Amino acid sequence: MTKQCPVGVFDSGVGGLTVVQQISQQIPEGRIIYFGDTAHVPYGARSREELIRFADIICQFLLDQGAEVIVDACNSTSAVALDFLKEKYAVPIIGVIEPGLEAAVSQTRNGRVGVIATEATIKSAAHKDKAQIRGADVFIVGQACPLFVPIVESGKVTSQEAYMAAKKYLEPLQKAGIDTLILGCTHYPFLTPVLQEILGPDVTVVDPAVETVRQLKKVVDSINKYDIIGSHEYFVSGEPEMFQQVGEKLIGHQKLPKVKQVSLNWGD
User: Fold this and answer.
1) CATH code for the domain in which residue 159 is found
2) Which of 89, 101, 105, 177 is the least crowded, having the fewest Cβ atoms under 10 Å away?
């Protein structure tokens, strides 16, 4: 028997695959149960109440599939729903806001940290609030990037459209003199080459997935569960073929297991 802890991961779409890639590297023995809410993507313009409801329904689904720990790989829901989820469910639930902030605080040289994220995440001011709670001596500059998620969901991460949108969104952060940039949405690491080209080598780009999975590994190692290794599972609420096609392209044309579409009661 091999130690295994089934890890549930959810996001609005393919963005959470950046977290999956880190899990595969740092916890190769882990079994991943992934849910992409592609029927409701993008989450950026959703209300706080909608985001909490979606996250709640998805967490229950992942638990029903056998998840022993859950990663909320969506910054929008991590920003507004994480406290609710942690209070409701007994299993460990890890968000992506705090890990990204911790990494940025440790790496910034001038204390000016940029955050690019969805409208919902920027509106929540979650990064600023967490920095204040930590007593971190940093100045947070936020920038909503509503075009980024649709660009990534369509697989156009190196297109002229992506470059022009990035140039527009990054300009005010560059003027603010940031030396560190938090990718405040798990879709955004797929745009890193474009972002780094515009920002130049003097700005550190922080992918919260790296630190999030470091924290996840500590939780997994503390759970004494032994079972036969199972295969990864991928579920979506929308079109499975599109998720499969775009997802495989984004992760370097690696094969994903067959993506299954499921119908959940969203309470709409």
Assistant:
1) 3.40.50.1860
2) 177
